Amino acid sequence: MQNLAEPLQSLTLDPTPKGCSENPTSKEARAFSDILTWLILPIAVLNIISGEVQSYWEQPFAQPYFDNSTKREITATVGQSALLHCRVRNLGDRAVSWIRKRDLHILTVGILTYTNDQRFQSLHTEGSDEWTLRITSPQPRDSGTYECQVSMEPKISQAFRLNVVVSKAKILGNSELFIKSGSDINLTCVALQSPAPPSFIYWYKGGRVVNYSQRGGISVLTERQTKTSKLVIARAMPSDSGNYTCSPSSSDSASVVVHVINGEQPAAMQHGNSSANSILINNRSFSRRGRHLHRPGVLDLVGWLDHVGASKNLILSLTSSWVCWLLKSIGPLGGYGR
Fold first, then answer.
1. What is the maximum alpha-carbon separation in the chain?
2. Secondary structure element (H or E) that encloses residue 219, with its range
């Protein structure tokens, strides 16, 4: 800080008028001098402090700078708008631009768009420090690095990473289910690669919403935080057969085909709560591994097929031997074997 003694020296008043000798006994003159000194002193101090404050704001850290509290890694789903928030302090009259890093293409300057792709737009509220790049209907090709840049010398910029993913729904289990009539249909759907919980998850049978079906015995439990939805149809009937679709708000849908078959005449059925490795053929249940599941004493399906294959080889071998014997037997009559 500047030395206060220098300005104060210039403020010292000489109470003795020029051409007159000093009168040391003049109390009134000295009192007047003291009053002027204490009146002017605060003004001088304020001027000095004002100069200090002005030089303070001219220092480098008062220049524009980025607020690092914003999110720099953004994940968006295809079809859902992506928002990149850039916050700049002390911007003044400088401009904020958004640059696509991979080709250094200028997308926006201020609130103006500088690209033919109108999906890109700069959002800004007057008086705020935030400049937002909005990408409408982003696609996986839009993934990459984007820079928020301030027009100053030297330029300063902040990088943002955008990941655009395809969110898909998945119904757990097989894509085709065989349910015994009277059993419950139990379907669970999960929204995969969804950056945020879906606003809703609807179930459809064909083109009809199952959630609000009048059938009765239908319950839908959706947990937004886990991004899952469970559909339960109690006491399934053959009329419940059809294509069931799970459709989250921000994900591609998934479908499963359900067959509800009467227990009296099953042709090929997967039990509602078992895996697809068990089938029921002609009222007898077998596993694909060849082991009989429910009826001991009944010929194993795969084992029987193996047995048939072995018998076929035996028959072919015997037939070949018999043909050779027959040719030898009739050879002399037909002129063979000479």
1. 175
2. strand 218-223
| Token pair for 166 | 């395809």
| Whether the Cβ atoms of residue 37 and residue 17 lie closer than 8 Å to each other | no
Q: Give, for all 338 residues of the chain, the pLDDT tens digit.
A: 444 445 444 444 454 545 445 555 567 767 767 776 777 766 766 666 555 544 444 455 578 999 999 999 999 998 889 999 999 999 988 999 999 999 999 999 999 999 999 999 999 999 999 999 999 999 999 999 999 999 988 899 999 999 999 999 999 999 999 999 999 999 999 999 888 888 899 999 998 898 766 778 899 999 988 999 999 999 999 999 999 999 998 889 999 999 999 865 444 454 444 433 333 333 333 333 333 333 333 334 434 444 444 444 544 555 556 555 666 666 554 444 44
- CA separation for the pair 247, 244 (Å, rounded): 10
- pTM here is 0.53
Cβ–Cβ under 8 Å, residues 152 and 60: no
Q: Are 241 and 228 in contact (CB under 8 A)?
A: no
155 CA to centre of own chain: 32
CA distance 319 to 15: 148
